[in-house]
């Protein structure tokens, strides 16, 4: 076998997968996983670990795979990463753990993410989740938002004996894992399994509960919560603020993906929520959200174009997603920027006027700027457009706690312990960092749990 | 939770339901709405909080059967539950303490959106006139309930079978032409009606508020599907509204956006009617 190459992983063929929402990557078999694990050099200084935001014990869990000790391997990962089946699927590994892998110098880095998900999937399919409840410590923590930050904070606190309640605005928990990232990249079954486990750990989920509307800080105090963790995400969709953006047929990626993932509009009329997509669709943006929207649109039968300001090389999306999108026949139009939408009599969008862009030399940070080329405007016709140019923090929380200190971009300001300017109220995930990644949100949730524990212990100590 | 407590038929295809939801009842304020789901495969639909009883924990909704989801809802009975019921959403109705004379105009299913406001203003001793309108006599409901809270109740029907023949705007026009003045006019109903009201009140420069009903998904400012043009700005009706200054609303744009899914909604409703044996 070629030591420099990864053990190939089975995927659904593009021609087949554009007709369904089943997962694209089919995962390793135990033998394939063990074979890939063999390539790991078990480096003493393990540079891969330094690339991982939560420092998964990579050589150790891979060694256990080599020995076919999958269960042990799972628990090894779990020591630092609470959601391996999810991170193994959606982490931008190529810029994190795998970027640092020594194997990557000459050949292909170890498929750390794929191995991680293999172990987690194997455990989910072959073992029962067991949890021996620790002695309750009599303290209650409220968590606002059930995305990865909230879930990981809940899990850590539950293990310390806290009584944890997660409040979620939607009717389903999971945050972006549920309503944002599509089924073919992250099956909802995986997310639901993690949530079921949290329930078994005693974590209470209260859905349809909107902080700032259904309940507020005063209610939490009255219910006897000792601390609060805010992990409400970056839910506010950015628009381009150009002419014609209210025309029918223009979706924010949030709306498009929520209709699809949360409301299952792709199964209309079996499910009641409608979605409408014509023959040709333009997706504006170059991040993970744009790729997801484009690939969903492809599966609904449309011809899809991604319209991006810079070039493919600068796209913030994961490389794997870009590659998958291209395999599925999605075309990338580089160096274009939207000017205005053009509609018809009935108020439906028909086209987007674009201007061509030019890359400038890299600035100090190494990022290349772009500027419009005068007089290069042209019209791009399509039946629908999906705007995927980022999300900002939802202002609901701020409205509910006016005294909460924010950063200039609307995100919540926290100290090194992730505590906000209000004592006993902590925050983490996208609401603090702005739109980031699952693993960062998860890491912050865990850190917040440790801070909350320290804070409450100290408070108790002082009161004695 | 979410149990239907009472159900009452108000007019053909119009139902009142009291739903047990103490959390929503506790926080509800006039002008706000809820989002509910009826079945596991169901969509989320917004309905105005017509009234609420904090002590009993009950939220009242009044809805008209216009498609699949409202039809499913109308088939539930006391003791049944809606699976999701979330709120209160949107910004509460605000009024300036100095204002004394109010005119409320409700066309079609506008009544739920004016009822709790009227009750509140009445309790503060304000002068309230109301115009309600419908196609025909059988479409007029809540007459007696409204009478309790106002000085004058004017009624119009398009076919003249009850009250004055014509539209609510005919009565409005008459009142204003005859010299009657109000500090604030609040209009809610079908988009063309609200637009027609504003066209008249603009001439008389009377502050006019409207309550908008764009298509919504989450109701928390997360999807932007409910965006409407207000003056030169784009607003999300679910968090910035649903009440806006009528002079600034782009009604034509709203009307177009509201019709976007009509073909699919019809498919959905037709299939549903066939299933329950009402199909043509
Ligand atoms: C389409 C898409 C694709 C992505 N792909 C990737 C990827 O491949 N890899 C990756 O690492 N990252 C990806 N991300 C980013 C990643 O999902 C986020 O960084 C991460 O989910 C943030 O976690 P969080 O817990 O902070 O917030 P979220 O996951 O946003 O969860 C916040 C939760 O809080 C709830 N909430 C909000 N306001 C309130 C309130 N007032 N009251 C109660 N509940 C409230 C929301 O409904 C939501 O459930 C993607 C994001 C999107 C949108
Ligand atoms: C803030 C707000 C308050 C409302 N209050 C009331 C009320 O008190 N009583 C009442 O009878 N109706 C109210 N409506 C309208 C109500 O939401 C729609 O009648 C309902 O969604 C129709 O669903 P359907 O499946 O039965 O009909 P469909 O056949 O699906 O739709 C019929 C029409 O209803 C509108 N509609 C459809 N889906 C939605 C949606 N998700 N959100 C908003 N509108 C939609 C569209 O204009 C559509 O053409 C309100 C709407 C809003 C936005
Ligand atoms: S959590 Fe993400 S970054 Fe860390 S090892 Fe796993 S895949 Fe790599
Ligand atoms: S750097 Fe690569 S080869 Fe070395 S231990 Fe980490 S995964 Fe294995
Ligand atoms: S309904 Fe989604 S933002 Fe208003
Ligand atoms: Mg419907």
From TrEMBL, chain A:
Q: Give the enzyme's EC designation.
A: 1.4.1.13
- Could you confirm whether the keyword Protein biosynthesis appears in this record? no
Classification via Pfam families? Fer4_20, Pyr_redox_2
**Where is each FAD/NAD(P)-binding domain found?**
140-445
State one molecular function term (GO): glutamate synthase (NADPH) activity
Tell me which domain of life the UniProt entry assigns to the organism this sequence originates from: Bacteria
For this protein, the record's SUPFAM superfamilies field holds: alpha-helical ferredoxin, Nucleotide-binding domain
Alphabetically sorted, this entry's keywords are: Oxidoreductase
Recorded hits in InterPro entries, A to Z, give: DPD_II, FAD/NAD-bd_sf, FAD/NAD-binding_dom, Helical_ferredxn, SudA-like
Can you give the residue ranges of the Dihydroprymidine dehydrogenase domain? 17-126
Q: Which PANTHER family match?
A: GLUTAMATE SYNTHASE [NADPH] SMALL CHAIN, GLUTAMATE SYNTHASE [NADPH] SMALL CHAIN-RELATED
Tell me the protein's name.
Answer: NADPH-dependent glutamate synthase
Q: Which organism is it from?
A: Anaerocellum danielii
Gene name of the encoded protein: gltA
UniProtKB/TrEMBL annotation, chain B:
Read off the SUPFAM superfamilies from this record: Ferredoxin reductase-like, C-terminal NADP-linked domain, Riboflavin synthase domain-like
**Signal sequence residues:** none
Domain of life (superkingdom): Bacteria
| Pfam annotation, one family | NAD_binding_1
Residue span, FAD-binding FR-type domain: 1-95
Q: What is this protein called?
A: Sulfide/dihydroorotate dehydrogenase-like FAD/NAD-binding protein
| Organism, scientific name | Anaerocellum danielii
| Taxonomic placement | Bacteria, Bacillati, Bacillota, Bacillota incertae sedis, Caldicellulosiruptorales
């Amino acid at each position: 076998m070629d030591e420099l190459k990864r053990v190939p992983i089975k995927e659904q063929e593009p021609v087949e997968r554009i007709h369904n929402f089943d997962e694209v990557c089919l995962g390793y078999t135990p033998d394939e996983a063990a074979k890939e694990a063999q390539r790991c050099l078990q480096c003493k200084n393990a540079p891969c670990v330094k690339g991982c935001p939560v420092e998964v014990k990579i050589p150790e869990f891979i060694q256990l795979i080599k020995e076919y000790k999958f269960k042990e391997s799972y628990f090894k990962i779990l020591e630092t990463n609470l959601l391996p089946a999810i991170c193994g699927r959606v982490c931008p590994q190529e810029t994190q753990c795998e970027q640092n892998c020594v194997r990557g110098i000459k050949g292909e880095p170890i498929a750390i993410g794929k191995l991680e998900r293999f172990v987690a999937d194997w455990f989910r399919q072959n073992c029962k989740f067991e949890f021996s409840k620790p002695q309750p410590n009599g303290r209650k923590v409220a968590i606002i938002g059930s995305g990865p930050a909230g879930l990981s904070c809940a899990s850590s606190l539950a293990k310390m004996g806290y009584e944890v309640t997660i409040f979620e605005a939607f009717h389903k928990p999971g945050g972006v894992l549920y309503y944002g990232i599509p089924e073919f990249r992250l099956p909802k079954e995986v997310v639901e399994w993690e949530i079921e486990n949290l329930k078994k750990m005693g974590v209470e989920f209260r859905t349809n509960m909107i902080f700032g509307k259904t309940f507020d800080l005063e209610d939490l105090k009255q219910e006897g919560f000792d601390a609060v963790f805010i992990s409400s995400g970056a839910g506010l969709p950015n628009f381009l603020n150009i002419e014609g953006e209210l025309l029918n047929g223009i979706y924010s990626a949030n709306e498009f993906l929520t209709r699809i993932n949360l409301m299952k509009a792709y199964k209309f009329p079996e499910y009641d929520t409608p979605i409408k997509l014509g023959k040709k669709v333009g997706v504006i943006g170059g991040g993970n959200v744009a790729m997801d929207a484009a690939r969903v649109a492809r599966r609904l039968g449309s011809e899809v174009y991604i319209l991006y300001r810079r070039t493919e090389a600068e796209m913030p999306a994961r490389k794997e997603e870009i590659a998958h999108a291209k395999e599925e026949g999605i075309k990338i139009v580089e160096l274009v920027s939207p000017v205005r939408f053009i509609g018809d009599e009935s108020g439906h969008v028909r086209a987007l006027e674009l201007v061509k862009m030019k890359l400038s030399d890299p600035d100090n940070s190494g990022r290349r700027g772009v500027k419009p080329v005068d007089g290069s405007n042209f019209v791009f016709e399509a039946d629908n457009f999906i705007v995927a140019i980022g999300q900002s923090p939802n202002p609901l929380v701020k409205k509910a706690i006016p005294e909460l200190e924010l950063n200039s971009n609307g995100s919540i300001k926290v100290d090194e312990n992730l505590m906000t300017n209000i004592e006993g109220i902590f925050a983490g995930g996208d609401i603090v960092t702005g739109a980031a990644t699952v693993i960062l949100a998860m890491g912050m949730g865990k850190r917040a749990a440790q801070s909350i524990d320290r804070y409450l212990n100290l408070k108790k100590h002082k009161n004695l | 939770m979410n149990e239907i407590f009472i159900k009452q038929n108000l007019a053909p295809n119009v139902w009142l339901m009291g739903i047990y939801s103490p959390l929503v009842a506790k926080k509800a304020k006039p002008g706000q709405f809820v989002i509910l789901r009826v079945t596991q495969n169901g969509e989320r639909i917004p309905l105005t909080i017509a009234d609420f009883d904090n002590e009993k924990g009950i939220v009242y909704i009044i809805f008209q059967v216009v498609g699949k989801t409202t039809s499913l809802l109308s088939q539930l009975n006391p003791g049944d539950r809606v699976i999701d019921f979330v709120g209160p959403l949107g910004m509460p109705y605000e009024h300036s303490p100095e204002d004394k004379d109010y005119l409320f105009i409700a066309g079609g299913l506008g009544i739920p959106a004016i009822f709790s406001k009227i009750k509140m203003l009445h309790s503060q001793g304000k002068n309230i006139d109301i115009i309600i309108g419908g196609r025909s006599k059988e479409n007029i409901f809540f007459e007696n309930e409204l009478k309790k809270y106002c000085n004058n109740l004017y009624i119009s029907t398009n076919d003249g079978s009850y009250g004055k023949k014509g539209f609510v705007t005919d009565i409005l026009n008459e009142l204003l032409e005859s010299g009657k003045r109000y500090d604030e006019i609040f209009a809610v109903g079908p988009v063309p009606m609200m637009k027609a009201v504003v066209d008249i009140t603009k001439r008389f420069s009377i502050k006019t508020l409207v309550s908008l009903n764009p298509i919504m998904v989450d109701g928390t400012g997360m999807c932007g599907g409910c965006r409407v043009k207000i003056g030169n700005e784009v607003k999300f009706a679910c968090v910035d509204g649903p009440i806006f200054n009528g002079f600034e609303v782009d009604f034509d744009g709203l009307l177009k956006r509201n019709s976007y899914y009509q073909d699919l909604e019809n498919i959905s409703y037709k299939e549903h009617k066939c299933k329950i044996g009402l199909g043509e």
